[in-house]
Design a protein that fits this description.
It is a single chain. By secondary structure, the chain is an alpha/beta fold. It folds into 2 domains: 27-248, Rossmann fold, CATH 3.40.50; 264-314. The chain has 8 helices and 16 strands. The chain has helices spanning 2-24, 41-44, 78-89, 104-109, 226-233, 250-260, 262-280, 282-314, and strands at residues 49-52, 65-70, 93-97, 114-117, 121-123, 127-128, 130-136, 138-139, 151-152, 158-161, 166-170, 175-177, 190-192, 195-202, 205-210, 237-241. Strand 14 (195-202) and strand 15 (205-210) form a beta hairpin. Helix 6 (250-260) crosses helix 7 (262-280). The mean pLDDT is 84. Residues 43-233 form the DUF4350 domain. InterPro entries: DUF4350.
């Protein structure tokens, strides 16, 4: 009997682990619960990072908070851009990481002086793996790059700047826009120095844009000073927008809720304590429940017997 019980426990445990893994882990790009090369699981372990499921959550955020937008799959509406602009007006910081141009709807909507040119950029001489992984060493000295001397990018784009902005990082003169995306410098490609990160003071807040969505994925975070750049950009509570295509898995939502909500943590702790007490006292509680059940059963039987006698007397 004990062997059968043990086997059942093992099988149930394996099933629960598999189901939990399926409900938590994903291999989709730029997901906070993706532990593979293309995910943000390592970044998500950084203190203070929480998913933002709806931009209305910005209403209670402001100075000291950071909104991070990473490779959105859906354009931002005018109303959503207004919510982000209001967040900037309250002193918040917005960090945009994108190389496909979907974030341009947000950048345009908030009146940004720069947008992302979704054309792949390559660079000779300084690169990692190949020319489409440029190593950026022209880094401006700012609080957002305090510990950064080298960034390693992964198929980045470049920024179009038309206004008062501070360039944080630029390519070498050996970079070019690779219009046909073949990692070769062709006749129609343009060489030059291109900005890949910049900042702009918007209202009371700061807007920072990086033309590479991959810079903080698991396979790139420890390249160069990418991790140090993340730490410089996220000194405070970081809200990662997952409402535009990078949804969090069901158990991932539970994890982040427990990670950032003290009331949820205390509730789970209380439930665990109650469960432990119930398990420890099961030998005392179960017999009592059996006695109570038998007492109720006997009481019902006695009443039925009395009724039957009363019926026979009346007959």
């Amino acid at each position: 009997m004990r062997k059968t019980t043990l086997l059942i426990v093992i099988v149930v445990s394996i099933v629960l682990v598999v189901v939990a893994a399926r409900l938590y882990v994903t291999d989709a790009d730029f997901r906070l619960t993706n532990p593979y090369w293309n995910g943000l699981n390592n970044m998500a372990r950084h203190a203070g990072i929480q998913p933002l499921y709806d931009l209305s959550g910005l209403d209670n955020a402001g100075s000291g908070d950071i909104l991070m937008v990473i490779s959105p799959a859906v354009n931002y509406t005018a109303g959503e851009s207004s919510q982000v602009a209001a967040f900037l007006g309250r002193g918040g910081t917005v960090v945009v990481l994108d190389d496909f141009g979907k974030a341009n709807s947000l950048l345009t909507g908030i009146g940004s002086p720069f947008t992302i040119d979704p054309v792949p950029m390559c660079q000779y001489e300084n690169y990692y793996v190949n020319q489409s992984f440029p190593t950026i060493t022209d880094i401006a000295a700012t609080p957002y790059t305090a510990n950064v001397s080298k960034l390693v990018l992964n198929h980045p784009a470049v920024l179009n700047i038309s206004g008062n902005a501070v360039v944080l990082a630029s390519t070498s003169p050996d970079a070019w826009l690779d219009y046909n995306d073949d990692i070769w410098l062709d006749y129609n490609d343009r060489m030059g120095i291109y900005p890949v990160a910049a900042r702009y003071s918007a209202g009371n807040g700061e807007l920072i844009v990086v033309s590479d969505a991959d810079i903080f994925i698991n396979s790139m975070l420890d390249k160069g000073d990418n991790r140090a750049f993340l730490q410089d950009l996220s000194r405070g509570r970081v809200l990662v927008d997952v409402s535009h295509g990078n949804a969090v898995t069901p158990l991932g939502s539970v994890y982040f809720t427990l990670k950032g909500d003290i009331i949820a943590q205390l509730t789970v702790l209380l439930l665990i304590i109650v469960a432990c007490i119930a398990y420890i006292g099961r030998d005392m509680f179960i017999p009592r429940l059996g006695m109570i059940r038998r007492s109720i059963k006997n009481l019902i039987l006695n009443r039925l017997t009395v009724k039957e006698k009363d019926i026979k007397k009346s007959d």
